[in-house]
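Suppose you are handed a protein chain with no further information: no name, no annotation, nothing but its sequence. What can you learn? This example shows the usual starting point.
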Amino acid sequence: MSGLRCNSFQSYQILLILFMMSSYACISKPGPVCMKQGRQYGTEPPFFIGKWSDYYIRALSYMEGECYDAALSDLHSAMKQRFKDSRTERYYGMHFMSYFPHREAGVIYFLTNRPGDAKKELLLSMSHCSTAKTKFYLKKSLKQILLDKDTEPSRPLILLDFQDKTNFQTSLSTLLISGVVNDEYGVSSINISNKKIPLNSFEKQITFSKRIVLNPGINQIRIKAENILDEKSIQTLFIRLDQSGPLIVVRQFHLKLGFKCDVIDPAGISQIIVNGKEIKFTKGNKVSIHLKSKILETMLLNVFDAVGNSTDAQFHLQDFKPKRFLTAMNSKASVRMSDAQTNPAIKYIEISTKFDFSECTAYENTFDLQGKVKSYHPVSDFAIQLIHSNSQKNQMNPLETFKTSGRILSFHETIPLNSGKNIILMKVIDSVGNKRQKQLIINRERSEVFKLKYRMGIDVYPLTSGFVKRKPFLSQIFNFFMNKNKVSDTGKFPNEALFQSLLMEEISSPERFQIFISDHLQSMIEPVHENKKNNQSQKTEKAFSSLTGDIFFTNQGLEIVLKIVQNDNSKILSIVDSFENKFDLKSLQTIAKDLSDQLHDEFPLVKGKVVHVDGQELDVAVKDDAKLFLNQRLLIYRKKESCIKACPFQSNSALLKWAKVKQRKNGGCIAICDVVSLGGANALVVTQ
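A reasonable first move is to predict its three-dimensional structure. Written in structure tokens, the prediction is:
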């Protein structure tokens, strides 16, 4: 009996405490009722106690219900407690949230046709923390202000640091594209070959630069600038990447008649040295030489094109003296060249390369092919064809372009290689239709330290809703269970699995990162990836970082935020975001590509060399515009001596040690390595 009384007393105590707590919870004044299409908004968060985070979350709910006055009131209440916009605002314990009261107020002002007020709030938000959504609505607000003034539209002016925009030539595989864009109303975007240049504000004059990778041959580079009024200007650069030496076509070699040859190159001929002596000539892309005096039995030519490529060749008088050749009509018969110069039956054509090999392994993106063609009849057609299973046939045919022919050709071509098996086919046709071809097989492999297993590892987790609920007190839990309206007014993004699949595809290509997809994310994207290649890496060690992120799916658009966090210390290495106001497939692809481009720009593959060793400290030199961050892992390596299967001038790499960036400086960094000596000079560096 006493036990029952005790239990009853305790029950009354609990009820009394709950009653007092529920009464305390009612102190906060509820917001106005907001109904849209039979659904109530302004009910988030369910546990409201009047903190800045509560006001902000409820304001976002009101915005979804288009109750903008109530939303503005809550945003201003939030600002009074926490003024600045922030991507990582702590709201309890070690929990953080995206907090942008000024940005959202600016969006409301724009949606309610108050662009002047929108501009003020959005600029303030940009000064606190720049985001893609802020830039999107700031541009719209500035445009509306200009349209209200009946502003005459004009196009941006693009000024490039290139004198020759249609015929620029280089032998470098990368090129820095730079210039200035001017616009009287403000530049809103700059794109180079469909890649965005990050802009922090809409200035009237913006200086830009971006390093791009060139492909062999003609590269068409489009620079597009856009202003606040959506007016566009486009300039196109035609950049020719030439890494091949000139072609030497010898037409005659005779002690009395002299030495005749044509030197041809699309870049133009800049220098010709014959037997160690430079000769004068009229520069052009085809130069004809006729030497009548001081003819020796051996002629050594060193020729250079306008971008620095060269071809070295040696020609012998005996190559043009009478020789015996088998005729096609009678294999047992033979004739002398001097006796059968008009005999079309003679089929002598020889193709030789500087180095004798039939199949080899290359570790670089290109392969130097040097050799000669000798023919009894003048060569009328000479082509080098690259065949690869994953690419179209690439063919070079210099004789057809420059309308020349000769009996001996000396060539030096740089051949672009694809991963795997590459077939190089050299084909020759002489003036009477005789044909000969020679085939080489080049196996392209990735150099050891550039293999995917050495790249930066990222654990990838599913993106989550960016809308947070503040940690509740017991009194708020009581109110929540007594409240019948518990429907969340922040909808889930319906195409979440599709988007995360698109994002994984973009980040995985090119192979800059090792991607380790979590089990949860894998189960989400498996149905989407059913007929696609899985780009996930095999995990052999702990990943260096993790990729997490937030999805903000609202009536105003789709905002995706990605965070790269270092695993060993939980430090945020980078935050990137993207925003689109549409939800179709094209918009999802645009966001995925934009985020991937930003991540690759934040963590580029940086190459350098060790210039000094002081104990465990390494002085590393890299390009001035290279990005490095503290504690970033570096691979210290050296080129291996060429092995039997390696192509000429091609070598694999050998990892020496790992190092970490200790201090950044102009043109490089100071790194820490766990060894005192690297065992010699010529140590190279590449980021993980």
